[in-house]
Amino acid sequence: MSLFARNVQVCVLSSGSAGNCTYVGDGHAGVLIDCGIATKQVMLRLGEMGLENAPINAVLITHEHSDHVAAAGVLSRALAKRGSPVPFYMTAGTAGNLPVASVPDGIELVEPGDTVQVAHLRAECFPIPHDTPEPVAWRVHVGDATIGVITDLGRPTKLVAEKLAGCDLAVLEFNHDEAMLLNGPYPYWLKQRIKGNHGHLSNGQAASLLGDGLSKRLKTLVLAHLSEENNTPERALESAMGVLHGRGVSGEIAVHVGRQRGPLPPMSVRTERW
Ligand SMILES: [Zn+2]
Ligand SMILES: [Zn+2]
Questions:
Q1: pTM: predicted TM-score of the whole model, two decimal places
Q2: Which of 58, 124, 132, 251 is the most buried (most CB within 10 A)?
Q3: For the chain, which residues make up each domain, given as ranges?
């Protein structure tokens, strides 16, 4: 092991339509991706996972739906009290449509495709199809390690598959089971929204995206943003494992399912040359 290796910790603090938040950091610098749970919960869950003192140098926002930004206002002030103010990176389309109570101090605008430097980390956003004006997904590069958080997209795209292929660890949306959504309790308009081109990935669509974007780099996969009404961890896992078995790599990739009501234990990605 190189003297210069370092572990990046990735902790999915919450995942699902009641709130999304993921921490990525290497002990020297770190970011939160989205903040759709209460600030108190962000801090509690970080503490529960032994990350209470983990550095937070920026917050990366994907889009303005409340399950991604609810805490932004309160969190920005809480982080400023902890030390220096923290930038909240988001697109202009997202910034212009934030719920009033979720406007953070320190908004920094990005364009889809931009990469911003956060201490020695590089955060890169890219466009995804979702029903907001300018949604993005984020990848965080720490040295030669790449972590991707890719949720809230209505369909797989070539670009997203390419971005997934560059990830060592990916948090990937497996929102709903097609049959459960169709036969479930949601009203017609909501079913149409979810399965539309700018809604959420079904297990089948996510599996197809995983197949297109599967690379030798991928060592850890988190199935994310599962619907509590229209999916089960078992069904999502079955879809993902089908792809991995089919490619003969099911033994090489650790697969976890993100949780809504509690954090997943931190996962490590080794990096060198940061
Ligand atoms: Zn969402
Ligand atoms: Zn959304």
A1: 0.97
A2: 58
A3: 7-268
